[in-house]
Amino acid sequence: MSMAGMLAPTFLAQTVAAAPSSLAGGKKALVVVQMTGGNDGLNTLVPYADGAYYKARPTLGLKDDGIIKLNDQLALHASLKDFKTMYDNGQMAIVAGAGYPNPNYSHFRSMEIWQSANPDSAARDGWLGRYLNAASSAGDPNALTKLGMTIGNTGQGGGAPLAFSTEKTVVLSFGGINNFQFRGDPSVKGDKEAQLAAARKIYNIAAQNSTAEYIRKTALDALNASDSLAKISTEYKPAVTYPKTPFADRLQQIAQILNSDYGTRVFYVATDGSYDTHFNQAITQSRLHQTLAEGLNAFYQDLQAHGLAEAVLTMTFSEFGRRVAENGSKGTDHGSAEPMFILGGKNALKPGIYGKQPSLTELDNGNMKVQVDFRAVYGTVLKNWLGADPTPVVGSGFPALDFVK
Amino acid sequence: MSANPLSDRRNQAAHLLRRAGFGGTPAEIDQLAALSHADAVEKLLNFQIDGNLAFNLERKLQENGYEPALNDIAYWWLLLMARTKQPLQEKMTFFWHGHFTSSYSKVKDPMLLLEQNQLFRENALGSFSDLTKKISRNPAMIDFLDGQSNRKGAPNENYARELMELFTIGIGNYTESDVREAARAFTGWGFKDRAFVFNANQHDSGSKTFMGQTGNFNGDDVIDIILKRPESGKFIVTKLWEFFAYTGPEPSVTDRLSEVYFKSNYSIKEVMRAIFNAPEFLSEKAYRGLVKSPVEYVIGMAKQLGATNIASNLTTAAAGMGQTLFNPPTVKGWDGDLHWVNSSYFFNRINTANGLADAKQNGQFRYDPYELLGFNAAKASQSPDNAGAVVDTFAGILLDGQILPEVRNALADYLNSPAVLKAPDLTAAAAGKPAAKAVDSRVRGVLHLIMSTPDYMLK
Fold it and tell me: Most buried residue, A113, A117, A216, A291, by CB count within 10 Å?
């Protein structure tokens, strides 16, 4: 074994401690994890002590090895084992029964509602976009681009998620540092630089219509971001081995950026694959849950080792939960109310279960009744974590929960 | 630039080929430009359906004992889009693929997806009612939206909901109760051995109340009830207009198209004829009014560069820009237009353009930039002898010659550095002289830069 290998942990810790951080000076970051497709909340936060649960779920009901108990009523899906570890470490809060009034069961409309935080009218902009517009300083034209970032595809047909959009906001969509750079002819010295100079000149010429202008601005933002991101790519070394999943890879990219002085404060990622489990739910949901929990656990271990865990809060959501009764195909149809997971440093949040697990006997057309409006959860994150006024973002009348220390 | 580039006949033909097809080569544009716009539209509309296209491939593969994978069928279709003489047939097939979606991520059987693809091709310009009824019996669709498990007493609502929300009428025009009742009407519609079967014992033959009507409805009845509604006509003509012309059509446009649709008994061919012949289709607003999808972007480059060989990795390249054929990300298909624009997709676009521009004669993707400039051509022609002329020739092929003077100057400056480009430099580069390597790199660099302009990303 080489000397470097033997000394790795201490050496690594020293290296990373010296690395610049986006979160210097008490700044805080938020990671939003979208569980695309409508996660079955009942088989995520499982009311294992309730007979009605097993009655509604004759084949899908989880018991024994299928669950990990949190208390005498509720348990986690066994594939969320790593979440249990974080829960026991004081690094996780759960909001049970989240949703909004008059639930909509279209994937797309309900996703719009969660991303816009505006159930009552057609979605025009997103909650994170509204927050970032207010948070960015007027002086720095690049600030907005840097503050928010989408990592990988968010599963809505490409493009940036609605959550980030406003008339002003164009956030960075980032698929990996290696592909994120301008190229020329590598066999001719100086060609890349000459082409890049010409490209910059072209992208600085106002285009003919609004769509071309949108592309032009995206191009300029991309070139600027590429320069900054290329500089940080060598400064960070992960302190843990991340699982080999695209989701974990995206989280590692977030850790890399958080370890730089790049300045992004809000990240948005989607899980791998779809939670839309109309058919043979057990296998799909188990795989997705495992990817989710293992990835986030590795992410927080990495952040912890780099001294950043206390400065990063993660919140999960899905566009809806699923019907209480399973369907005829060992799956579940679209339903309402779902648990949201809040992850963070143990000094950053108060662990526990917030909201309320909905009744399985008082149903609305076969669906659970929503117990806590998701805008109260967003509002809590905005006010108590990011220090922002939640009213312009989510509206008023949503009292904060108590999960942030 | 003139006020409306679409007042020029050749630009009209190029525009029509970008919308009704995947972009034209200079020769294809010349052919159409020789006709009036209305005659060009007729030429594109009146194609002969080739019922065997997909099955020829299927048979060939099976004769060789080969089970195709996702990329095999994606590459096959990409080549067909690039090489077809009936571009509207493939463009419509592409539209239906993004409308009545089924995705490999769930279906996992390329043969089923290929058969669905052929269904779209055969019904490309047929009746929307027929197509909706056929797709409701299509094995890939049944598999994708869980029809197999939609049984009497235990309905699965997946297909019923998407049929209304995404395929025929749109959200806000049906109730949750309609979803539940429609699901009952489709119970028992399944497939076996890659063919539709009606499982009578799994069909719920009880009375259903759907959109205010009550009866012992089956799936076809449900479709008939939906399609009669004016909202459904407006829904489908709007979707077609937004795919082929521009987003946010004026009410006068959708009213006109809805009338054509209902009067012609749901004829897609009549709607498409009305779309292409609409004055709005040739308006300034329509010109470069939509973002090319990744597939349109890569095929357009291949055609306009005059590629003699198209590499199979163009399917992967399009995937990096957000579009994998036969594998749309959700049941909604691809949102398109501005959704194709983000910083990550942008780099994948321009880096693909760079790879193609740099492609050499012996690679998987083959083209000759000097042939585009009139060198090495069979017939003698005037080839450019300075940087500005090189830019103009390329911009003529790739941008309808519609290029901002400032952009033209930036490109010419790039070609003229470090030394002013002269005729002998180009002749030497065209002849492949090693001494002209730097010039060759610049000539290809100009193509890369043009294909990276915002204008080239538009159609």
Answer: A117
